[in-house]
Amino acid sequence: MKKIHVIGGGLAGPEAALQAADAGCQVTLFEMRPHRSTEAHQTQDFAELVCSNSLKSESENSAPWLLKQEMRQAGSFLLRAADETAVPAGHALAVDRELFSAKVAAMIEAHPNITVVREEVTHLNENDADTITILASGPLTSAPLAAELARLTGADHLAFYDSISPIVDASTIDMDKVYFAARWDKGTADYINCPFNKDEYNAFIDALTGAEKIEAKAWEALPADGQPTEVTTAYSDLTTDHSPLNNTPVAAKLQYFEGCLPIEETARRGRDTLRFGPMKPAGLTNPKTGRWPYACVQLRQENLRADSYNLVGFQNHLKFGEQARVLRLIPGLEHATFLRYGQIHRNTYIHAPSLLTETLQLKAHPGILIAGQLSGVEGYTESIASGLLAGRYAAALACGEQPTPAPRLSANGSLVHYITHCDTKKFQPANITFDLLQPLDESERKAIRDKKERHKLQCDRALAAWEQWMQAQRSPALAT
Questions:
Q1: What angle do CA 323, 160, 79 make, to 5 degrees?
Q2: Of 9, 250, 412, 447, which has the fewest Cβ atoms less than 10 A away?
């Protein structure tokens, strides 16, 4: 049996390592922290949640719920850790970050088939016939490793910029100005809601759009081939810096992912854009007035102690002093203490439609698999899911078998199908949505008018196909 190397201790890497180890493979898990950190991580912990603490909706028959249900059926280790460290979050699955990471670390330490090596990997040996490699080094893959991947793929990396939301000390929130509620009363009332009237909202938008941004840093401008590259976008000013690969000048713009735009960029698209986005008041009835506010900021519990909350959807790229000034215009946060300010960080990913097979193997080097955000999936749950598949696929390869791709009808299969079959000119990282699932045929769409019923049918089919696929896996350890 071949040995398996997993590179990266974020979300996809530990899940892949645990899946492969549970199948009886000998796994070495490499993580460069603490010897070398990144610009976004704050700890050396496995499975550190850098942005929010939410793994999205648990509403039955929603796309995120479906993905998680498939993962639970497959015995996802990290999802089990998430379930065991969940904090109140209405109809979403949110976790206590520290406890979640500790659970994952304990699972890895306890597994006899996993060896952890704390060092930076700077070379990929594509000719090592005795090793299967899973590269799950994440959106902040180090420059030497990124250069190695570029050498192997012969293709440019793409890069967009991901974001981190601020966290506030719960004891400094003015509870007389806010209220607890869940949107449309779905789930329990676990969110703190900060209501705006029209004048307060307009003052906030003026301050936000006029605030000073942080300029791009050298580490953010990372071309795949080390040559001067211009990345175009409509959302940021051009900055010139140097590539960490060879210190050559780089012209770069912040290429934001549409699903995670900084709030200041969203606000510049129109005065009411935030009111229909992260500050949407619909379904958040204020018990003091019996009405929806003009706009609303939601705060989600950060840990089990409930002593800190994060500002939902409030990722931004403003200077810290500007954040303190602008965010204290939010009703209830006038005297808030911020435990962490919002940030932007580079998120590097490969051009999966050109490079990957449906079993997450590099087409040119099938002994190397790519998982996590580096593969082009977007989101915590999606990253864990890709790690789950990569670990199972690597275990099959280590045993001399060719892995069978996850079924197209399933959420996991649909996610990988998207990143490996998307139009090469339109590829952008994706969260799981019903748009990615195989659609119903025309007769079914005509017969089922209700969208919820359509989604239920798609979920039922997905779970059935997923169960059948798992049972067909040859290794008893893989047929969970």
A1: 85
A2: 447
Q: Are 289 and 296 in contact (CB under 8 A)?
A: no
Which tens digit of pLDDT belongs to each residue from 285-331?
Answer: 999 999 999 999 999 998 888 889 999 989 888 999 999 999 999 99
Tell me the C-alpha distance between 454 and 471, whole Å: 26
H or E element at residue 322: helix 320-327
Q: Which residues pair with 134 in a beta bridge?
A: 6, 369
Angle separating helix axes 380-398 and 63-73, nearest 10 degrees: 30
pLDDT of residue 335: 97
Strand partners, 301: 309
- Supply the pLDDT for residue 147: 84
d(CA 314, CA 341): 10
Which tokens is 235 given? 């959302």
| Bond prior to 34 in cis (omega within 30° of 0) | yes
Query: Which pair of structure tokens corresponds to residue 407?
Result: 């079924």
Closest-CA residue to 431 (of 63, 11, 12): 63
Q: How far is Cα 420 from Cα 327, in angstroms, rounded to an integer?
A: 40
Arithmetic mean of pLDDT, 37-54: 73
Residue tagged 């510049």 (tokens): 268
Question: Using CA atoms, how far apart are residues 261 and 274, in angstroms rounded to an integer?
Answer: 11
Strands 343-349 and 158-164: antiparallel
220: pLDDT strictly greater than 60: no
What are the respective helix, strand and coil percentages of the chain, to the nearest 5? 35, 20, 50
- When pLDDT is averaged across residues 253-261 and rounded to a whole number, the result is 60
- Output the CA torsion 195→198→201→202 (10° steps): -170
Per the CB < 8 A criterion, the answer to whether 33 and 41 are in contact is yes
Residue 187 tokens, joined: 């789930």
Pick from 141, 135, 110, 116: which is nearest to 219 by CA?
A: 141
**pTM for the full model?**
0.71
The full set of domains in the chain, from first to last, is: 3-157+350-472 (3.50.50.60), 163-213+257-345 (2.40.30.260)
